Predict the structure.
Amino acid sequence: MALVSINPATGKEIQSYPQHSSIEVKYILDQSVVAQQQWKNTSLELRNSCLEQLAGILRDRAKEYSILMAEEMGKPVSQGLGEVEKCASLCEYYKEEAFGFLADKSVEIAGQKSIISIQPMGLILGVMPWNFPFWQVFRFAIPTITAGNGAILKHASNVQGCAFAIEKSFKDSGFPENIFRNIVVPGREMEEVIKHPAIAAITLTGSTPAGKSIAMTAGSVLKKTVLELGGSDPYIILEDANVDLAVDACISGRILNTGQSCIAAKRLIVTENLYDTFLSKLEDKLSDKIMGDPKDDVDIGPMVSIEARDEVHDQVCRSIEAGAKLKLGGIIPKEVGAFYPITLLSEVEPGMTAFDEEIFGPVFTVIKARDEANAIELGNQTEFGLGSAVFTSDLEKGESIAKTQLNVGACFVNDFVKSDPRLPFGGIKESGYGRELSIYGIMEFVNVKTIVVKNA
Ligand code: NAP
């Protein structure tokens, strides 16, 4: 069997990648175990020099990589360039911070020397999605490898070109040959790999059902998991908000990656007094947005596949049948490719698909709230708990709502949600558990070891 990359803008096959057999996967894991045993004893100076070279290689190849992303999953090239730059800055962040994060820490206890030592766990398996095909992989692999682990990538079936390009970027940056390896295996056949004794722990970024499946398999052999899953982020626009700022942030937060982001602005909840103004400004600004070939200067490209587009369209149709009003888009274009227009739904309420489900595409969902309390209640009315935003000119109030009232992993006041190497990233509830990035990310896959030394 082979995994096939198809260009979603043209429907044409790009390349097919033969699946690794069970024996080939075991051979790769054996080689990676040997590489990790040596890597864990290397100095941080050496690891940092590899990180620095990798950042340089990413920047040199940014154009090539962004075209690859455009071809394999439809991301506009301008956004792909930003994604590769972010990966480079992630390498630099951990290069700067690794010494502090991984250094031994002493604890003063009378009569003994007490040390907390951070040790790697072994090989970490990353099961990754196609939507940010570089960033998601680097976000797991860089802290993991910097801490002395090896990384095994199982990338989404449709972006194997990106997966192999990333593998090569590590090799070309001075990292040992087998410290980062890609395996070509479809998701439904991952059970044996997860259970393989060479794999110490697993991190998955993807859908909630995939997360549950992996967690069950990993749990059966007592392996740790970190799960970054779906989201239906509420953006709450309160009556004292700067409406123009809120509209712009909601647009940026929703159309990035053609709406296919876990932390997209998925439910825009607007208090009654601002609702009409917000809606008409949003509709105006969205009308100017350009959809087209991701290699051109466009706001949105095609969606990842015809199947994904049809699923989004079905969610839109079900919402309209349940009473949502269609203000823009909502019609599948006649052109070839997995294109879906920017779509705006208003009068959305709980019980409608657009409120209850995650819509993974360029669909704006506007919901009316009676007041602040009702807006917060609606915001929390979801099985997910990933990101969120609050728009208000009262910054103290915004911070307080963010801290204590929204049940999420992140809340941005007067901005759209974005990941940043310096800040922890992750969710609660059906959005998963564990954190990536910052010190919290690097600490997920280490053995925090206690060492006590007493005089003999
Ligand atoms: P998906 O189907 O869950 O795929 C993600 C990865 O999991 C792919 O590599 C896939 O492999 C693999 N996979 C699927 N089922 C599996 C199973 N039972 N066992 C092992 N591996 C399995 O996700 P998607 O639909 O492509 O991506 C969109 C979802 O990811 C959305 O819900 C989005 O919100 C979420 N997401 C979350 C974050 C976050 O940080 N929280 C970031 C991005 C995306 P195959 O491709 O071979 O099936």
In short: The CA atoms of residues 78 and 297 lie 7 Å apart. The chain has two domains: 2-229+431-454, 234-420. The mean pLDDT is 98.
